[in-house]
Amino acid sequence: MSKEEELNEQEELCEEEQNASSKNEEEEAKEAADRFAADPASRAYPTLFTPSDTSGEKPVEEFHAPGERVNLHRYSNVGVACFDPPTERERQVVRRLLTEVEELYGEKTWTKKQVKQILERAIPSLSHVELGRDLDQKM
Q1: Kind and range of the H or E element at 118?
Q2: pTM (2 decimals)?
């Protein structure tokens, strides 16, 4: 079976499962887990596709930034970000970040906004979108 046929089959299974109105989500999840446990070599596993509607989700999850070197040939299904050793300035930024986080957590009471501000100072390119709904609430 080709990859395309395999993906089409998985898509059809997803549609069938979504249309099975008599089953609740917990039953569906258990059945999907049982199917995977019965044949783990198939590399098929339960997947939930939903719209991105929780805080912190990005349109695309990429774990490298523009301008970084990425080796797309080392592994067939994943790229590897390649980094030079950190500069002294980068080491200072990390030390400052850790100090600020330790100080904040030492206060016993802190907010998500405070943590976000500390991270944004250390990583200016960080882009966190706050939607007022987190993954726990979604699930």
Answers
A1: helix 112-122
A2: 0.48
What does the pLDDT look like over 21-46, one tens digit per residue? Answer: 445 777 777 787 787 778 777 766 66
Quick one: tokens of 17?
């499962």
Nearest 5°: phi and psi at 80?
-120, 120
**Alpha-carbon 78 to chain mean position:** 14
